[in-house]
Request: fold
Amino acid sequence: MTCLPASTQTRLGLVIDLDTCVGCHACVIACKGWNTENYGAPLSDQDPYGAAPSGTFLNRIHSYEVQPADKPAQIVHFPKSCLHCEDAPCVTVCPTGASYKRSEDGIVLVNEAACIGCGLCAWACPYGAREMDRAAGVMKKCTLCVDRIYNENLPEIDREPACVRTCPSGARHFGDLSDPESAVSQLVAARGGFDLMPEQGTKPTNKYLPPRLKDAPVDLAAMLMAPVADTPTGFLGWLDRALERLPGGAGAGGTETGRIATGGAGTGPRD
Amino acid sequence: MTQPFLNMSPPVSDEIRKTTCYMCACRCGIDVHLKSGRVAYIEGNRDHPVNKGVLCAKGSAGIMQINAPSRLRAPLKRVGPRGSGAFVEISWEEALQTATDWMAPLRRTAPEKLAFFTGRDQSQSFTSLWAQAFGTPNYAAHGGFCSVNMAAAGIYTMGGSFWEFGQPDWEHTKLFLLFGVAEDHDSNPIKMGIGRLKARGARMIGINPIRTGYNAVADDWLGITPGTDGLLVLALVHELLKAGRIDLDYLARYTNAPVLVNGDAASDSHGLFLRDDAGKPLVIDRHTGALAAWDAPGIHPDLRATHVAQGITHRPVFHLIAERYLAPEHAPEAVAGQCGIPAPRIRALATEIAHVAFDQAIEIAHPWTDFRGERHQTMTGRPVSFHAMRGISAHSNGFQTCRALHLLQILLGAVETPGSFRFKPPYPKPATAHPTPHCTTNPDCPLPGPHLGYPQGPEHLALTPQGTPARIDKAFTWENPLSAHGLMHMVISNAHAGDPYRIDTLFMYMANMAWNSSMNTAGTMTMLTDRDAAGDYIIPRIIYSDAYASEMVAYADLILPDTTYLERHDCISLLDRPISEADMAADGVRWPVIEPDRDVRGFQSVLLDLGHRLELPGFVGPDGAPAYADYADYITRHQRRHGIGPLAGFRGDGSASGRGAPNPDQLARYIENGSFWVNHVPAEAAYFKPWNTAYQDWAVGMGFYDTPQPYLFQLYVEPLRKFQLAAEGIGPRQPPDHLRARIRETLDPLPLWYPPFEQAATGADAYPLHALTQRPMAMYHSWGSQNAWLRQIHGVNPLYVPTRVWDQHGFATGDWARLASPHGEITVPVALMAALNENTVWTWNAIGKRRGTWGLATDAPEAREGFLLNHLIHELLPPKGDGLRWSNSDPVTGQAAWFDLRVNIVRVAARDAALPAFPAVAAPPATRGPRA
Reply:
């Protein structure tokens, strides 16, 4: 059994906006690419060109359909990776101490040198956020790009998780959730960010922002659109009056350029 | 407890090489990280104007393309029957000499016997130059089955369209309407834009039969019936006119709404503009009541007054608009049933659009001067923006539907104003500033001008002196006069039918015609392998270039293997399909960030070599040597006009932009700059570009054109009326009688709606459902979904069935269905989807693969359960009994109408493989499984 730290100095995590996520999988592949080359064993693929390709991913998108009673059905794209819980059951269940939660920032990691690949942590995680790498035989999970976020070989602007850096719609945000003044905490406060499955008692660090209300009735009272005409003839009558109010019309002021001399030979009356 | 030691700053890579992505058509900037000379990681380039650092799934997965077992390894010569996949590897010298021996005699005798069509080509300004030098009229890229309706309608109406031509004003728009955009076109910029407008709390409405992707995050969704968008849009126009919620000042100043039209039905000029002696369309000036040329300084064109000359009343276009769209047939109640959207919802949408456009108008305090010399103190914005794509475009009424959408935008004053829709340089550029088509062939001679263009009337059709189609695809003929991108989807069918003539050599690049890039896929395979009575192939020779073992490879006689996009030079040129943003002109390059490990060559360098061997003008230097060493040399030294080359940046001594002498260091400067170049539009020129003197002057300086080109938006497209007049019997060039009625009905100078042709031909009873396809975001436009990572995301493609149909047929999870169209049937797995128009089924396109291709195992899910809807779609409409071959295309542009598809569905016993099944093709020598 492995202990959790009594407290952490910061609580780094992700805030994922379900209102903006278009389900494009950019984060999934950026994560796969970065983590294949970096922290620990590569994320392997089995039978990559065969009948049953499968591989290790630290982040996956699930898409759900929602059917409200009185409105059109909706689709919610739901990216899921480790939520770096405060009370992480995957850590406490680990028999070797390989799974641990960093006291500095709360990131949950697997020390692959100590991992025996028993899989208990994956069973303990209520979110299904861990995947056993079939080639390396060790447990893989989101590292919050711990090898990026402090990495002095990267420009400061790039010291964020690969999934956040790549997200085209800006649906993924990274920061310190322990600091109420941080941008991510403010976003959570403003948008009603929520914990995933709070009843599990895991106290996840990552937060999700809910989709905004969709297909709500538009309040037309404030934007009344009264007809000016019902027929083309009536419309031209309205047009006469409306044009008078435009620049150049009798009811409007002059313009900066001079007016052309009058003289309407050949032009017929207005019909 | 102690934590293990962790190096928080591990080395990231040895080197970053910045180039341009080619995983789709977005052309984002990428940072390619190298470790020990191999590609280790790909991420977005933060400085790049297109993606600003972000990157989609395809872009990051590009690393797997350069490892893919499907990569071709060397030139190939067919040794078995066509379609078998039996090839031997040959040398480049043998390959190039063979191609030369086939093509040189054609050029000397009948250049049109070569048909050269390029698919997902991003070098069309170069490939078209080559075809022009060869002298064949038969050249185009894939726009004819992609989105030519969108491009042509946009260019003819307002000098630009969506995507590469323009974009919503993401920073200012308050209401964004997305029509018929699946998950594509364009990819990252749309996602970035949606993210930005949502962050500001702006509203987004998706109008699409399918609620995935962008439509899933829209605030409101209208699950419209496919092919009826034009009806919806014209009902919105009806409502806006009826309420007077239109921008009269904008219409009077910047559009042809005040231009006078001949109203005498007995006149040979009926429906044409009244013009002055210089040929300029005339308006009436509201100050003077006198006629004036549209661009006369200081005038205020009148939307109201009419003009009588020689007994003929000339009425402004605006009268015709009011008359047509105020008619009851355009009322919401009249169209609600067909659109599948209740009338109150249509009315509410119109109300909301008007409210945002006029009650929430924005004003930017930026003075500017218009082309009539008037100085404006501010820029008034209508913060309603639109974007549309394939769902509008790929119907046989798509051109007019796109036109309707532009009419709506323009009535609102919501084009090139703050908060609305903005052009991206070198657009705006009106149809009249583009070339007209050229098609005259002579042995041993280049074509007299560019193949593709924008006809202004019947005089510009690509017809032979006998009046028959000059082009194999029948582009620019009476069947589809404004086919600005050609009709790639008709090339094989017409060549096989010998209609309008037979060809000798079909030369294609990146065009998977034997699979997902053809309608009637099985028929296309038959046409490619069909023989005549003498046992010879009906299409005698086929040359194909591709980087991967696609389905098309097996159907060629000679394969010229291309490189991957990380191993080549390319230019993303302003002469071609630009990557500019609304505030800047931009172009870019690709360069070999790694060297190929196979005997492959960049296709453009190969074309240069062939051009030299064929002695094409412009491809041979003064000493008889090749004019250009390779494509990089061409990019650097070629001049299209004096001082104008493929790349606009770092010209002359390196400091010149737009115009300037070729600079031998240009490519190095691009690479040093991150493989792109930008030049910002001056702030005064930011909006009102077609009419803004500051923009026009900047554009001339950049070399987009040589003199200022202000123009009016063409709500009424006079060239269309000229084709109608011909169909009415007027003029020297006359259409065949069987097309007269259709031309009169569909080439209307004002937008209209008519039912999609297939629907009209087959009726709704036998085929009650619409069937659509879309590409998933993780694969859109991706050249090869064999990518090892992406296929784990999208390895299968069920047919998605709406709840109503699912219940009606008693479907259950795991079921299969037989889907039939007038043309064929397929048997496929089904899945339930509620967020879907209740009369529409759909699937992901191009997941299904032919067994034996793309380096995949023959039992790969893509080849087993994966399927194409293409088998249900014919390139021709069902026969009408007149013996004629009627193309399944838009009658204006020739756009392939593959979204017109109608089907019926039957539940069948579950299977383990989709039907039709095709025998496995043998993999080319290099691609039999992953190499060690």
Observations:
- Chain A touches chain B through 106 residues (CB under 8 Å).
- The first strand of chain A starts at residue 12 and ends at 17.
- Residues 44 and 50 of chain A are 15 Å apart (CA to CA).
- Helices of chain A lie at 26-37, 89-92, 120-124, 146-149, 162-166, 183-191, 232-244.
